[in-house]
Amino acid sequence: MKIQNQNDTKRGSFFTEDGGRRIGEMFYSFSGPGKMVIEHTEVDGAHEGKGFGRQLVKAGVLYARENQLKIIPVCPFARKIFEITPEFADVLF
Q: Is the pTM of this model over 0.90?
């Protein structure tokens, strides 16, 4: 699964596609210096339960590490992933 990222320095998303159609997407924004807010994660119903959402959150964590950012997980799904994945704690705000 290839995860892509696009942002305009204020907002962005990590997403994955199948046949040119987005099947999973995690939306985020930047909140002041050094903070990234995960706002919403969604996966197409036909692809739920396949780990796409978790991989999107992981991509956000890797991006935060590379850019010295802390993550504020407002999205309930992302918040749950942080709760069950202690290795992501280094980027949690």
A: yes
Contacts of 73 (CB under 8 A, 6+ apart): 37, 38, 79, 81, 82, 92
- Secondary structure (DSSP) of 38-50: EEEEEE-GGGTTS
Which own/partner pairs from 58-66 qualify as long-range (CB within 8 Å, at least 24 positions apart)? Answer: 58/88, 59/3, 59/5, 59/14, 59/26, 60/14, 60/26, 60/28, 60/36, 61/88, 61/91, 63/5, 63/14, 63/36, 64/36, 64/91, 65/90, 65/91
Q: Mind listing the pLDDT tens digit for each residue in 52-72?
A: 999 999 999 999 999 999 999
